Request: fold
Amino acid sequence: MATIAHGTPEIAAEEVNYLNVEHGWKSWLLTTDHKRIAFLYLISITAMFFVGGAMAVLFRINLLQPEGIFSAETYNRLFSMHGIVMVFFFLVPSIPATLANFLIPIMVGAKDLAFPRVNLLSWYLYIFGAIFTLYAVIRGGVDTGWTFYAPYSSTYSNSYVLSAAMGVFIAGFSSILTGLNFIVTVHKMRAPGMTWGRLPLFVWANYATGLIQVLGTPVLAITLLLLFFERVAHVGIFDPNIGGDPILFQHLFWFYSHPAVYIMILPGMGVISEIVACFSRKRVFGYNFVAFSSMGIAVLSFVVWGHHMFVTGEAMYTSVAFSFLSFMVAVPSAIKVFNWTATMYKGSVSFDTPMLYCFGFIGLFTIGGLTGLFLAALATDVATHGTYFIVAHFHYVMVGGMVMAFLGGLHFWWPKITGRLYPEAWAKFAALIIFIGFNLTFFPQFILGYLGMPRRYHAYPPEFQALNVLSTAGASILGIGYLIPMIYFVWSLKAGPKAGPNPWGATGLEWEIQSPPTTFNFDETPTVTKEAYDYGPVEEIVG
Amino acid sequence: MPASLTLLLADLQLFPPAASAQAGPIDALYWFEVIVSAIMTAGIFIAVIFLAWKYRRRANVRATQIEGSTFLELSWSILPFLVMLVMFWWGAKLFFAAQNPPKDAMEVFVTGKQWMWKVQYPDGTREINALHVPVGQPVKLTLASEDVIHSFSVPAFRVRHDVVPGHYDSLWFTATKPGRYRLYCTEYCGNQHASMGGWVDVMDDREYANWAGGGSHGSLAEQGQKLFEQNGCSTCHQLDQQGRCPILRGVYNKPVQLDDGRTVTADDSYLRESILDPNAKVVSGFQPNIMPNFKGQLSEEQVIQLIAYVKSLSPATPASQQGVQQRPVVIAPRAKAPAARPPQ
Reply:
């Protein structure tokens, strides 16, 4: 697969596919093809990823010196914009708006999503939201952190809170519409024979995600609107000086933002299920448990928000209940990890790039999940709340988990999306670099956290410098690791070898059609007769 | 380069000092969690590497298709959950213990303000970004915020509590090791958030007695009494005979009947609310809209002084409600005689 393609003359008579069927910017900007919209999203979120990443590079440089290098003002804006851009404009739409947008209709045997024009609208809303937020960046940034805690954000901050928050508000609707589209598509557009029990686990994961997007995101919209009213019209909602309650903001914010954490990880779990099955040549161990654990996570995710507030003075028994529920939500995640691992048992495992990302995901998500237990336990949450321990924990889940899964999925389906292969050796090298860089960046932060180093500090006591230097060194390796795929993916668009319909020998409807697919995916509606992951008849039931 | 590296490593810390009675038990839970996590992580890593290598792709060897196993699914759901229940119970137990300060806790008042911690002691001593406490003595901090949300954190004590504007928060600890420990603000509060910190000095009894000098403006309660007169409170809240407003003598920490039928306890939070927003909870038998609204007129520190004064109007049983035994409040007229002050 790593063969070099340069010099190979292109054959003139290329198959018609969704990429070459029409040309010109209008054919892209007015398209209703879910695959083209996925491509538009891919370009947009990649741009936002590098905007957010550039900010991370800058503030990691600042943290090389205990007294800081930039001003406090600059630093505060950098970490705030990093969080806002990465959470709302990269992680939330990452897999759903790109890979799932591309794949869900194909995986269920449909021509497109249920509402193709709504799908295009969702991309425009995303862009519109991004413009508002980037406007805030260009004008001088916002300094509230991605959490927009009131009354700091509503009354005290002198930064561009309104336009940044409006951007997030608008982008939220793009997320709602994507989720809605997935839910309706999975319910109404499945091909004959595509029963719920035959759906690929990637579809299950994104269906569960869609439920959270539709039910949770409106609460974020309400919260930001209330913030808007208080900041503009001084209606007392959150600021106690005008009759509000700051804790109310936190309840509302986390009622969305904890489920949103699962918007940011469930689709990644779906990707891992697909990859581990394909590269083990096996059906996923315990399909039903993996599918239902996605639904379990979606439901439980709505009843754990209080664990963000153990040290705010939340009632003691409320905290105890939220602590218990937070431990509960760990169970379905653990089930998934065990099942992915067990899938390799008696399999035929190959080590292609997507599988390397899958290994990386399982390892890092395990660490991210287990360190979550420290935060679900009340006493150790008190000791670590607001420190780098939290920062390390959620980066292990969001970056070690979701970004690994996103890159794994992108490498897995890139041949389908573009019809081209990427250089395998470079891809393996990049995966390794990312894994090393990631751990070097974030593992020291667990130690810093228990030492007590608070997050969001532009300057820190000198005893924390060695670990911070290590973390910055890791971040530079990680940054290079992310640039390499960027380069070879762009290269492969023109010069990569042709992939053919099924380069991995995978099962699934998407691998039965040409690469890249035609505009309507299937010449005629397929009839499904097999389960997902039909790599052979079942021979054994363990224990 | 090697020289600077040595410098870096000279300061390197990997685990925080443990300097409070709470720190040891919380560390024990932390290490339990670390060990469980390490075992689980190692198990998963080893299983992934072992299975991937053992079942690596070979020519002419096909995968064996396996449906799954309900027994295994239940085992690896229930067993980890049982371990998690231990963590849950353990964490909750320590958390419960951290909720209620012992009766003999010494009281200190801390007000967070962009970007400093202002500390007031019952004897009227004040300091900024510094806290002095005697070793072995439970200390209860009452936390107030003048502006945004702050969070009071002393990692060496493993304590932290958010300081939310609009009401009082509190935390307590018993320092066990004399020394200097860092205190931080750990809730982002604006531009100079990173400089909103300082030191907690834990001193042995003699050192502490030497340090504790008392305020130059009298005790907290005396300062409160001055404010009480300056702001005209005393015209309506008379000490002995019923004026237009309730008598405050003996009211502290006692139940109060409200005009809507509810009963509340006249604790710090209630008194604070009644000073800043008197119409929120009107005492039964009195008219609303008589007392002016002091929101914006008094700082949180002044409110603390006023409450200390009201507190001093109540009989000193039990001692804990009066604050500290070692550092008693000097009381307003006709209250119980104060105990001896530590030598200066």
In short: DSSP finds 17 helices and no strands in chain A. Confidence is low (pLDDT under 50) at residues 1-12 of chain A. The CA atoms of residues 114 and 188 of chain A lie 8 Å apart.
